[in-house]
Structure formats: structure tokens, C-alpha cells
């Protein structure tokens, strides 16, 4: 009987640990329209409500063959993108994924996404926390209007 009680307690604690909310919240998640077979983009703001630094280390979406994190930069008038393995979100801070800054590349879209569609995604953090979100497909501001949001 003690073994069964111990097993039940262990399963309860494991379930509670998995259900623990991620310390990071997503706001303003959106994407642009894109055609199946091409690449899409994901923008959002991550807000770390926790007391420790967190890092986004992976993103998955059932509508993309893979999702990569990128940073855009300007050097000598030439814009370039660099793939990132992680994006750090300091405790009590926000990090913007926006045109001309950090962004997600939704590579190999499995279907066309139009204004009003939702693109589901799961964000994975270095702590092991996972956060499900959805990107609303919309027309958004151009990169030139978002210069103040560079990482």
C-alpha cells in the first residue's frame, strides 16, 4: 500500500511540475500572409515575469517544416540575418520579435496562410518550460517603422 501511495504522489508531483506555467508570457504574436511551400515569419513580445533569466531555445509549429530564430542587423547600409540558437529574456524584462529585429522564420509552410488565420506554435525555454501560442496572420508595419525595436 505504501508503494502505491508513493507512486501516486510521484505521478501527482510530476504532473504538477509539467503543468507549471512558463515564467515568460507572449503578447502581440502575429505573422504576415504567405504561400504554402514558402517561408513565413513570426513576431511577438516575450515578457519574463519570473525572477530568473530565461532563454527561448526552440520553436515548433505544425504549419512549418521547421522554425528558426533570427536577428536582423544593419552594417554599412546592408541588412543581414543571423540564425540564433537562443534568445535571452532577462528577469523582469521584455524582448521584442519585430520587423528589423529578432524574428522567427517559419520555414517550409505546409499551407497558405491568409489574413485572419492562426499559426499555432510551441515555444521551448532553457528551463524546460513549454508555452503554446498562436500567431495571428495580419498585415503589419514595415521594418522601417520599427527601427526603435532592434535587439
Descriptive notes:
There is one protein chain. The protein has 151 residues and is mainly β. 12% of the residues lie in helices and 49% in strands. The protein has 1 helix and 10 strands; from the N terminus they run αββββββββββ. Strands 1, 2, 3, 4, 5, 6, 7, 8, 9 and 10 form a 10-stranded mixed beta sheet that branches. It is globular, with a radius of gyration of 18 Å. The N terminus and C terminus are likely disordered.
Here the CATH topology equals Immunoglobulin-like
Which H/E pattern describes the elements?
A: HEEEEEEEEEE
Number of domains: 1
Q: Cα distance, first to last residue?
A: 56 Å
Strand content: over 45%
Helix content: 10-25%
Quick overview of this protein structure:
The protein is mainly beta. The chain has one helix at 2-19; strands at 24-31, 40-48, 54-60, 64-75, 78-84, 87-89, 94-97, 102-109, 118-125, 130-137. It has a single domain (22-139), classed as PCu(A)C copper chaperone (Immunoglobulin-like, Sandwich), CATH 2.60.40.
